[in-house]
Amino acid sequence: MYFIVVKFQTKPEWTDRWLGLVDDFTRATRAEPGNLWFEWSRSVENPHEFVLVEAFTDDGAAPHVQSEHFQKAMKDLPQALASTPKIVSRQVEGEGWGEMGEMQVEPTPGG
């Protein structure tokens, strides 16, 4: 699978509108056959930094970057950004999330 993390630094005037700006892109990507997850988070240290964690099957990554919605996002998103996004993209073994081996938590009743 391809595991990707991207950090986006928004311009202050776009920070509160960022998730709206990426909504169509997010929905279209999540609907792709090869997408395993596409999840946005916000930095607890920098309110203008959004972190995207995404994963694709081995066959899903190439069609994603060739898709119409990806190409549109590459044109639309820069207007809201203060700098070029930073990325880590790696092909890794596995097909999804696994449990953390160093820590085990017993489920609570009813939870």
TrEMBL record:
Residues 1-75 form the ABM domain. It comes from the Bacteria. SUPFAM superfamilies: Dimeric alpha+beta barrel. Keywords: Monooxygenase, Oxidoreductase. The keyword Oxidoreductase applies. InterPro entries: ABM_dom, AI-2_Isomerase_LsrG, Dimeric_a/b-barrel. GO terms for molecular function: monooxygenase activity. PANTHER family: ABM DOMAIN-CONTAINING PROTEIN, QUINOL MONOOXYGENASE YGIN-RELATED. This is Antibiotic biosynthesis monooxygenase. The lineage of its organism: Bacteria, Bacillati, Actinomycetota, Actinomycetes, Propionibacteriales.
